[in-house]
């Protein structure tokens, strides 16, 4: 009969605790997603769990322009805002990350926490403060103001993921490229950007999904003509607990999963040391 020492029992106990806590954490994160998706498949007329039968009727209703035209318009607006906010965040965060990681920029590393301040402030407080600030400047709520607001609060996501990748790169790579005759622009385009692309894409994905899901900033900075999907869903729940809200959530879950799979395929761009 195999006997175990104290160290073996301690190892087994530690592994058991990690497995139990890991399973509990995964359950807490995944269960609401599964419940939300199952509610979207209900054959009934109200949101409830377990669903009254299984049906795709609400997805069909969601795709019908005659029934869900306003939802389509709000979804298109949200996609436009998320795309523009993502592009602007990349244009701002990537140069900042590269500059902070350079030899000249390392002496300003103390300023790095300031780049993360927009994420520290609650988005509700930021939305109110941004509205008051822009009103003082004579700028009224609009589509473009929402884009600016989303860019400000989500740019730190791209900055953080890009800095994490840039900090792992050897500075000799860029120096070797320029020693061989390449210009700074050519080195940036052909050496640096391809190497840090995983960080940029990871941050871009976070910004895109966070922008699609944002309510507080959009609520204060959008005008009456700018209807975004999260606010539209909120109003549908307040008015009638419309089951199409669950169907929208199901579509968002599927799109998010697809984007994560696509983003993970870029993991092989990170060079591995031999």
Write a structural description.
The chain is mainly alpha-helical. It has a single domain, classed as MetI-like (MetI-like fold, Orthogonal Bundle), CATH 1.10.3720. The protein contains twelve helices and no strands. It has helices at 6-40, 57-63, 65-101, 112-115, 117-120, 123-136, 143-166, 171-179, 184-213, 216-221, 229-240, 244-264. Helix 3 (65-101) crosses helix 11. The protein is globular and about 70 Å long. It starts with 5 loop residues before the first helix and ends in a 10-residue tail after the last helix. Residues 268-274 have low confidence and may be disordered.
Q: How are the SSEs placed, and which strands pair?
A:
Elements: H1 6-40, H2 57-63, H3 65-101, H4 112-115, H5 117-120, H6 123-136, H7 143-166, H8 171-179, H9 184-213, H10 216-221, H11 229-240, H12 244-264
Tell the overall outline.
globular
Assembly state of the chains shown: single chain
Helix content bin: over 70%
For the biggest sheet, the summary is: none
Rg, nearest Å: 24 Å
The count of β-strands is: 0
- Strand content is under 5%
Helix and strand element order: HHHHHHHHHHHH
- Please write the CATH class name: Mainly Alpha
What is the CATH-assigned architecture?
A: Orthogonal Bundle
Q: How many DSSP H or I helices?
A: 12
**The CATH homologous superfamily:** MetI-like
Which structural category do the helix and sheet elements fall into?
A: mainly alpha
Low-confidence stretches: 268-274
Count of spatially separate domains = 1
Distance N to C terminus: 44 Å
Kindly report the average pLDDT value: 78
Q: What is the CATH topology classification name?
A: MetI-like fold
């Amino acid at each position: 009969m195999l006997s175990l020492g104290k160290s073996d029992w301690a190892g087994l106990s530690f592994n058991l605790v990690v497995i139990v806590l890991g399973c509990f954490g995964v359950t807490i994160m995944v269960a609401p997603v599964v419940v939300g998706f199952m509610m979207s498949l209900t054959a009934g007329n109200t949101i409830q769990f377990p669903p009254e039968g299984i049906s795709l009727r609400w997805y069909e209703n969601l795709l019908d322009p005659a029934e869900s035209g306003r939802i389509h318009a709000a979804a298109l607006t949200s996609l436009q805002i998320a795309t523009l906010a993502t592009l602007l965040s990349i244009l701002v965060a990537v140069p900042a990350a590269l500059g902070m990681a350079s030899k000249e920029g390392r002496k300003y590393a103390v300023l790095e926490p300031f780049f993360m301040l927009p994420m520290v402030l609650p988005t509700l407080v930021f939305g109110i403060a941004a509205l008051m600030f822009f009103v003082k400047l004579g700028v009224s709520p609009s589509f473009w103001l929402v884009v600016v607001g989303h860019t400000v609060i989500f740019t730190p996501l791209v900055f953080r993921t890009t800095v994490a990748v840039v900090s792992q790169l050897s500075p000799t790579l860029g120096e070797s490229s320029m020693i061989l005759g390449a210009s700074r622009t050519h080195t940036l385009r052909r050496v640096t950007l391809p190497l840090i692309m995983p960080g940029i894409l990871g941050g871009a994905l976070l910004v895109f999904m966070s922008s699609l899901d944002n309510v507080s900033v959009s609520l204060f900075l959008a005008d009456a003509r700018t209807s975004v999907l999260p606010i539209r869903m909120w109003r549908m729940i307040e008015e009638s607990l419309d089951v199409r809200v669950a169907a929208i959530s199901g579509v968002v879950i599927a799109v998010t999963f697809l984007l994560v799979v696509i983003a993970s395929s870029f993991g092989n761009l990170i060079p591995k040391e031999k």
